[in-house]
Amino acid sequence: MKKIGKADSFISSPVASDGKVFITDVKGIVYALAAGPEFNIMGKMPLGDVCMTTPAITDGIIFFRTEKHLIAISKEQ
Question: Which of 19-23, 61-65, 72-76 has the lowest mean pLDDT?
Fold first, then answer.
């Protein structure tokens, strides 16, 4: 079994889109995992703020609400 972070590091639920699973820890680090049977962290990105909410995805844009900001990231970024 492979894990990322600690049990109390994640409050939000994971979301999936385009063959990827996204999950954000409370420190505001977004992890992108490959959707599939193998555990594969494709990348991670700091949001720079505390994040305790589940991301939302629509029209190729993923939205993260942090304590201070609403951040939108598209495929082109």
Answer: 72-76
Q: How far separated are the first and last CA of the chain, in Å rounded?
A: 32
Does the pTM exceed 0.70? yes
3-state helix, strand, coil in the chain (%, to 5): 5, 45, 55
> Which residues, listed in sequence order, are joined to residue 59 by a DSSP beta bridge?
none
The third-level CATH classification (topology) of the domain covering 7-74 is Lipocalin (2.40.128)
Q: Which two tokens stand for residue 30?
A: 């977004």
- pLDDT tens for 31-62 read 999 999 999 999 999 999 999 899 999 999 99
